[in-house]
Design brief:
CATH class: Alpha Beta
CATH topology: Alpha-D-Glucose-1,6-Bisphosphate, Chain A, domain 4
Helix content: 10-25%
Oligomer: single chain
Distance between the termini: 35 Å
Strand content: 35-45%
Number of strands: 7
Largest sheet: 7 strands, antiparallel
Strand order of the largest sheet: 1-7-6-5-4-3-2
CATH superfamily: START domain
Structural class: alpha+beta
CATH architecture: 2-Layer Sandwich
Number of helices: 3
Length: 146
């Protein structure tokens, strides 16, 4: 695995895992805290509940992405692989892991993994997704839930 192709950020947030998870698992809430400034909107009613779910997001550039859920544990883990609408996933993955630290405190790890990405046209954008961008998402998320 190329460590340059897996970036992550971790932050402790003063909120319970169940509260934080609702902001992550509801695509309509994701543009509120997106540190990549890439997400424009998602239709309400797409709350993720299981592996195999697919939610659709409109990007700031106007494009539509289907997001295929590949990991799910309620209140703890959520990961998805984006694709152009109607196409198979492109090979990159967004992952969230929540670790309760006690009442009202949670460690949140946000990871972007593009080790399986094969479309060279997406490499520049993938390289631009740095741990600082992921940390920005965590900061924005914390500001919403704390």
């Amino acid at each position: 695995m190329d460590t340059d192709q897996v970036v992550s950020a971790r932050r402790e947030i003063d909120a319970g895992a169940e509260v934080i998870f609702e902001f992550i698992a509801d695509p309509a809430r994701q543009p509120e805290w997106d540190g990549n400034d890439n997400l424009a909107e998602a239709a309400p009613g797409q709350r993720v509940r299981a592996v195999g779910d697919v939610f659709t997001m409109r990007l700031t550039n106007g494009g539509l992405r289907d997001n295929h859920v590949v990991e799910f544990e309620e209140g703890r883990v959520l990961a998805w692989q984006p694709s152009d609408q109607g196409s198979p996933p492109a090979g990159h993955r967004w992952r969230w892991e929540l670790e309760p630290l006690g009442p009202g405190r949670t460690a949140v790890t946000h990871t972007y993994d593009w080790t399986q990405l094969t479309d060279e046209g997406r490499f520049a954008r993938a390289r631009a997704t740095t741990s600082d961008r992921l940390a920005a998402s965590l900061e924005r998320l914390a500001a919403r839930v704390e």
